[in-house]
Design a protein that fits this description.
This protein has helices at about 10-25, 35-45, 45-55, 105-120, 135-145; strands at about 1-5, 60-65, 70-75, 90-95, 125-130, 145-155, 160-170. It has about 170 residues and is α+β, with helices and mostly antiparallel strands.
């Protein structure tokens, strides 16, 4: 049975573990081991996540299968995108599913959940960054209606950036 629920501070350790694992599964070849470690050690920290929990516009959700954690998402409401004139946009900051669940269409279920919530909260669309070499993710977003509207250099470390598409789904 698949369940999606809002995550809170009590889920901190689970989110950190899921985040590190799923990031490496999706982006493990996007930089050197040192760059990846430095990124994870700067972004997937208790203090970073606790600050994000304090932001009323930021929402984390966990998805589980038969009560086993399978992935998570993070959206932030009312984040304008420099590549779009639209206002009241939701930024899909993270949507990650453990590799062992890729064939279960959990990413689609989690995305649709976030889109529905975003619409309910009077947002006009959703945007995101996606690494151009993550062909699986790029195809996923294209199939779900996102359009590429620009490029972004994602800073993995002080010395390494990865090219990303900026993608937008307007409601």
């Amino acid at each position: 049975m698949v369940k999606i629920r809002r995550a809170d501070r009590t889920d901190l350790e689970l989110l950190l573990a899921l985040g590190r694992t799923t990031f490496l599964e999706a982006h493990g070849s996007s930089g050197s081991e040192q760059d990846l470690d430095n990124y994870l050690n700067s972004v997937y920290t208790p203090s970073t996540f606790l600050k994000e929990f304090d932001d009323a516009n930021t929402h984390f959700f966990l998805i589980s299968v038969d009560q086993k954690p399978a992935g998570f998402s993070k959206i932030t409401l009312n984040v304008n995108c420099s590549n779009s004139k639209s206002e009241r946009l939701t930024k899909l900051d993270r949507i990650y599913v453990l590799k062992e669940y890729y064939d279960k269409k959990l990413g689609l279920e989690l995305l649709n959940f976030n889109i529905k919530l975003s619409k309910k909260l009077n947002q006009t669309g959703m945007w995101l960054y996606v690494w151009v070499e993550n062909h699986r993710a790029v195809n996923f977003y294209q199939k779900t209606g996102f359009n590429t509207i620009g490029k972004h250099d994602f800073r993995l470390s002080n010395t390494h950036t990865n090219p990303n598409h900026v993608m937008l789904l307007e409601y």
